[in-house]
Structures are given as structure tokens and as C-alpha cells.
Design goal:
Length: 445
């Protein structure tokens, strides 16, 4: 004989409107409805974030499903299971009792199960004379049958979102690769264009990309990168057509390719760069007398302060920040990737970055930065170049400028006293005797 079906939990646990809504869903289950419990569980697992379930609660749900003997959950069959807490803890890999109770409440709150508590809160089943179950108290699994289609739709939506996110990430990676390599190609092939502006525009877009971003934000960045990609592509295609006007879909003209992989504007620099390189060579003839330790980062930044303008956040705290800023400056100066790689191979990455920072500090005084860098690289290959004279010359120029333009006509002694005071305060550059002797060497032009 069937007794009243419980709809409220035992003890002090309250009933909520959400639980009543979950119970309402199960009232109209068709008798012929059938769901594979493991397929439904797979859909629930995939959509657990949307449902509000946790990993522990799903482990308990998996254990509850295992207590139902049939693989198919039907609307006509009994869907109440009544395992004890000890049995649930065992099948949930030894989960503590307090954790078990907490995550059972999560399953109830998510509407995945319904409590059918007995008058005394015990879980059991009463059988009739023929052995059939007349009344059961425990956990009702009928919401899984009633909401099976909803779970499947949520799982499909989650999979679609994951796929869209993966496609957005792939698009972002391809756009970043294409833009960087097309900028390098434009500089390498001497394509007319403001490549420094393009490089800054690209970095401004990438700077908006956090470490972890939602799909919508990634797609917004991809749209901006695509506009920049179209702009760069049009520049390169227009230049390619102007170089080979016979190339089109219907006519294939003879392709003439320059076998010289190095641009003329770097390998054959003008007479001004030749004089600059010769002056630098004259300074570095006495390289053996220079300090044998590495240049400190603070001294390099004092000499090449303009490099902070392109650094991330306007700050350079470590050598890796300095190297990153040099990589940013390289296309702005029109230095080709081949010239840059050659300089790093000969000078070393750090010394090549210092050289590039010094060239950037000189600005328009150097007409062809790429050609000048190649000249210094060649002299370094012969052991006739060091970065010390370059940095010392820039520091000497700054000290001379500060002495010449002292406030209120202050003399050299006053400027020196101010400089010494700043050094003691930690805001200035401490100049040792050896460094002062280096500053007395001929200036770098």
C-alpha cells in the first residue's frame, strides 16, 4: 500500500522554491521515457559549470547512479535509491561524511536529485508480499529522466563554446604570426611604408590581451588585428605588383629574383655611415684598456634613456625588459631581421641590444641604422668594436650638456656638487675614477 510521498527534507533542512520547481518537473514524465543513465551523466558532467555542480558532487551522483541496477532510467520504473552514508562514502572513494552531506545538498540545490526522506530520516524500502517495492525513502533520480534533453542541450552549448574559443585562439595565433612576419618582410625587402608606426599599432593591440581572456575579448582583438593585417597585406601586394607588373592570373611572366639576400640600403651604407663607423673604430682601437666587466644596466639606461619610451609600462627593471625594448625598436629603426640576427650572433644578444639602444639614442644623427649596425658588427667580428666607448660617449655628452646648461649659471663645481649629492641620495649616477678616465677618452661620433 502506497503512503504519502515526501516532498520536504527531514530535520532542520528547509525547503526552497527551487526544490519545489525541480519536483514539478518530474510530475509530467511520460511513462515510456527512457534515458541511459551514463549518457545523461556524461552530459551533466560536461555542463556542470552551467548547472552549478562541483567535482565532488558529481562523484556522489555517480555513486548514486551505481546503486540503481538498471542502465536505463524509465519513467515507469522506481527511481529512488536508498544507500546509507557509509555505502555512499565507500563508492565515492572514501569521501568524509561532512563533505558527503555538503555535496549532497549541492545536488539537491542543482535539481539533479530530490530528497524523499522518511519520517525518521532513515533511508530504506518497504516491500510487499510478492517482493515488490511498495514504498522507498532515499534519493529520487527522476530529475535526470525529466531533464535529460535539457542536459544534452547544455552539454552541446558547452562544446560549441569550447570549439568557438579554440577557433578564436587559433585565429589569434595565425594573425599574430602573419603580421609579425609580414612586417619583417616589408623591412627586409625595403618596402616603402612607416613600419615603425605599424609595429607600434600591433603592440598596442596585443597589449590589450590579458593572460586569460574570454572568447568575446579575443574575438574583438582578432577583428582589430585583421584590419591591421589587411592594411599590411595591401601594402605588400601593391609593392609586389609594382615590382612585377606582368604577374596576374592569366599571364605568367618570367620571374626575376634578386639573388642578393641582403638589402642594398644596409649592406652599402652611405659615406656618412662609413665615416661614423670609422670614428667608432678609432675609439675602439684601445679596447684592451677598457674595463673587462659587463656594463651595468643602470649606466646603460642613463646613457640610452630614450629606450624607456618604447618599454612596456615605460619601465625597464631587468635585462629581459631591456632586450624586449630593443626588439621593439629594431623595426622602428628599419633594421632588417637578418642584420639583427647577425649582430646578435657576433656581439651576443645583450651587447647587440646595447648597440641598438645607443643607435636609437642618437636618432636622426645616423642616416641608416641598419647599415651602421652591420658596419659595427663587421668590426666586432674583427675584434675592433666594443659597446663601452659608445655608452661612455653618450654619458659624456649628457654630463657636458648638464654642465653647460646649469641652473642660474651655476659653475662646473656647483654642478659637480649637485651630481655628487644626487649620487649619495641614490637618484644620480655614481662615477668612479675608472669611469671618469673612460669619459675622458675621445667622443663617439
Amino acid at each position: 500500500m502506497q503512503t504519502h510521498i515526501s516532498t520536504t527534507p527531514f530535520g532542520r533542512r528547509p525547503v526552497s522554491l527551487g526544490q519545489i520547481a525541480s519536483q514539478m518537473v518530474t510530475q509530467d514524465i511520460p511513462p515510456d521515457a527512457a534515458v541511459n543513465k551514463w549518457h545523461a551523466f556524461q552530459h551533466i558532467r560536461q555542463a556542470r559549470d552551467l548547472l552549478g555542480a562541483t567535482d565532488r558532487s558529481l562523484a556522489i551522483l555517480n555513486a548514486l547512479l551505481s546503486f540503481h541496477r538498471e542502465t536505463e532510467l524509465t519513467g515507469a520504473g522506481g527511481l529512488i535509491v536508498w544507500p546509507s552514508n557509509e555505502q555512499l562514502m565507500a563508492r565515492a572513494n572514501g569521501m568524509p561524511a561532512t563533505t558527503l552531506r555538503r555535496h549532497l545538498a549541492v545536488l539537491v540545490k542543482c535539481g539533479l536529485i530530490i530528497r524523499r526522506d522518511s519520517p525518521n530520516g532513515k533511508r530504506f524500502a518497504r516491500k510487499g508480499r510478492g517482493g515488490e517495492i511498495e514504498q522507498a525513502y532515499g534519493f529520487d533520480l527522476s530529475p535526470i529522466v525529466a531533464r535529460a534533453k535539457e542536459f544534452k542541450d547544455l552539454a552541446d552549448a558547452v562544446q560549441a563554446e569550447k570549439k568557438a574559443f579554440r577557433v578564436a585562439k587559433e585565429r589569434l595565433t595565425l594573425l599574430r604570426r602573419d603580421i609579425v612576419k609580414m612586417i619583417d618582410a616589408g623591412i627586409e625587402e625595403k618596402v616603402p611604408g612607416n613600419w615603425g608606426r605599424v609595429q607600434l599599432a600591433y603592440q598596442a593591440i596585443i597589449a590589450r590581451l590579458p593572460r586569460s581572456a574570454p572568447r568575446q575579448h579575443i574575438e574583438s582583438i582578432c577583428d582589430d588585428l585583421h584590419e591591421l593585417w589587411v592594411e599590411i597585406r595591401e601594402i605588400l601586394e601593391s609593392f609586389a605588383k609594382s615590382q612585377n607588373p606582368d604577374a596576374n592570373e592569366s599571364h605568367f611572366g618570367r620571374h626575376i629574383q634578386n639573388s642578393n639576400p641582403e638589402p642594398n640600403f644596409e649592406s652599402k651604407y652611405d659615406s656618412r655611415n662609413a665615416k661614423e663607423a670609422a670614428a667608432s673604430a678609432a675609439e675602439t682601437d684601445n679596447i684592451r684598456s677598457l674595463p673587462r666587466r659587463e656594463l651595468p644596466l643602470g649606466i646603460v639606461l642613463d646613457a640610452c634613456s630614450n629606450l624607456r619610451e618604447v618599454a612596456q609600462g615605460g619601465q625597464i627593471r631587468h635585462w629581459r625588459d631591456f632586450l624586449a625594448a630593443a626588439e621593439t625598436v629594431r623595426p622602428m629603426l628599419g633594421v632588417s631581421p637578418s642584420a639583427w640576427e647577425d649582430a646578435k650572433a657576433v656581439l651576443g644578444e645583450q651587447q647587440a641590444a646595447i648597440t641598438l639602444a645607443a643607435i636609437y639614442q642618437k636618432g636622426e644623427q645616423i642616416s641608416s641604422a641598419g647599415g651602421y649596425l652591420r658596419s659595427l658588427t663587421d668590426r666586432a667580428r674583427e675584434g675592433k668594436f666594443s659597446t663601452w666607448p659608445m655608452i661612455m660617449a653618450l654619458l659624456r655628452a649628457k654630463l657636458d650638456g648638464s654642465q653647460a646648461g646649469g641652473e642660474d649659471g651655476a659653475g662646473a663645481d656647483t654642478v659637480k656638487r649637485r651630481h655628487d649629492t644626487a649620487s649619495r641620495d641614490g637618484n644620480g649616477l655614481q662615477v668612479s675614477d675608472a669611469l671618469r678616465r673612460s669619459l675622458d677618452k675621445p667622443k663617439w661620433r
